[in-house]
Design brief:
This protein has 372 residues and is an alpha+beta fold. Helix content is 54%, strand content 13%. It is built from eleven helices and eight strands. The chain has helices at residues 19-36, 39-69, 95-122, 139-154, 162-172, 177-202, 205-231, 253-262, 282-291, 315-324, 344-358; strands at 4-10, 13-18, 74-80, 83-88, 268-272, 275-280, 330-334, 337-342. Strand 1 (4-10) and strand 2 form a beta hairpin. Helix 8 packs across helix 9. The longest helix is centred in the first third of the chain and has 31 residues, at 39-69. 31% of the residues are buried.
Length: 372
């Protein structure tokens, strides 16, 4: 995963830490060291944030393990300075399943906060709340409060927070899934507008940032559900590219560059003995030309790990794979043979044509530049 380091693998799920998270902790430690001149104080200043993000990681595992209970695997979990992200292979389709998956994360934080409360009560370790601050006071009591805040924030009834998915799950028991998503997204955007107003009026930039975060999340969720609905029940073969070029492992990067210039294709399957053995992307070609030169064989820079799909699988499944993988081209394989390619562009063109034929508005589709 780009710009992320793997911490390990637990319960069959890869866990990554994004480089910005490490920079964030390092900055906290550096500021503390500059202020106090103590290495011990610098390390201690990063302990509380690290423990909070351990709770965030457990929160994400709550989602992942609940999803696993319903047969939904999790690709990975990544920790960022603004929180964690568990990438599920797909979202639950039944409202009750989505409700349990959404609520599982906050329930983990409830359990942590309650456990800390019991310990602090049994040991008579509570201190007056006015003595607590972000960087000082009882560590466990601060951690208890942080978990309570995580529960409250995540249960806000707005996407992309868990509360937005809880609201949709409840609405989906009454309305169809698309309508439930639209109502939940509208509610989230109304909340974003309120946050923005309060943030600007009160001079609180954090509320403005949260408003932006909620507004974008609500818009994206609504669009994604519309796309999924539009693609439902349509096999991949109806939208795949069948007029494409391939490369052999021994072809040079110069030849690949010529193909890019001569046509509109930017990613190329690398085929050996009738089997796809790699994918060469336009960025791979540019980087390879820069580092190794035009005479370098493509097998030296091609991607050997790639996602494939069967022509009779549904487009909504293929779209989810395009969204989740760090790729813009998926080879379509039938009985071991390459029969087509699927890209976000041709999925978007297919939607555009379908929209024109049925006189329905086309949901916006944009995966440009998306990476895992």
């Amino acid at each position: 995963m780009k710009w992320a380091w793997k911490l390990g693998r637990w319960a069959g799920i890869d866990v990554y830490i994004h480089v910005t998270f490490v920079v964030f902790l390092g900055a906290l430690g550096l500021i503390s060291w500059l202020q106090s001149g103590s290495a011990v104080a610098a390390v201690y200043s990063t302990l509380f944030p690290a423990l909070i993000f351990l709770c965030v990681l457990l929160h994400e595992f709550g989602h992942a393990l609940a999803a696993k209970r319903f047969g939904i695997p999790t690709r990975d979990i990544t920790l960022y300075p603004i929180g964690g992200v568990a990438r599920l292979e797909r979202m639950p389709e039944k409202p009750l399943e989505e409700l349990w998956v959404a609520i599982a994360g906050p329930l983990v934080n409830v359990a942590i906060a309650f456990g800390l409360y019991l310990y602090l009560s049994s040991t008579n370790s509570f201190v007056p709340y006015e003595t607590l601050s972000l960087g000082s006071g009882s560590l466990l009591q601060r951690l208890m409060i942080a978990n309570m805040i995580l529960v409250g924030f995540n249960l806000l009834p707005a996407f992309p927070m868990d509360g937005g998915r809880v609201v949709r799950a409840l609405l989906a028991s009454v309305f169809d899934y698309v309508r439930a998503t639209q109502i939940a997204a509208t509610l989230g955007q109304a909340m974003a507008f309120l946050f923005a107003f309060l943030g600007i009026a009160g001079g609180n930039p954090m509320l403005v940032f949260i408003a932006f975060f909620v507004w974008i999340g609500a818009s994206q969720e609504s669009t994604m559900v519309q796309i999924k609905t539009a693609l439902a029940g349509i096999p991949v073969w109806r939208a795949m590219i069948t007029d494409f070029r391939t490369l052999a492992p021994t072809d040079t990067l110069a030849k690949a560059a010529e193909l890019i210039i001569a046509g509109t294709q930017s990613d190329f399957p690398v085929v050996s003995n009738g089997k796809v053995v790699g994918i060469l992307t336009s960025s791979d070609i540019v980087e390879g030309l820069s580092q190794y030169g035009p005479d370098t064989p493509v097998e030296q820079v091609m991607r050997r790990e790639f996602v494939t799909i069967d022509p009779y699988e549904m487009l909504e499944i293929a779209f989810a794979r395009l969204e989740n993988c760090s790729c813009r081209t998926i080879p379509v394989i039938k009985n071991g043979e390459l029969v087509g390619l699927l890209t976000p562009d041709n999925v978007g063109e297919f939607l555009m044509i379908q929209s024109a034929l049925t006189h329905r508005p086309m949901p916006a589709i944009n995966l440009t530049g998306r990476s895992a």
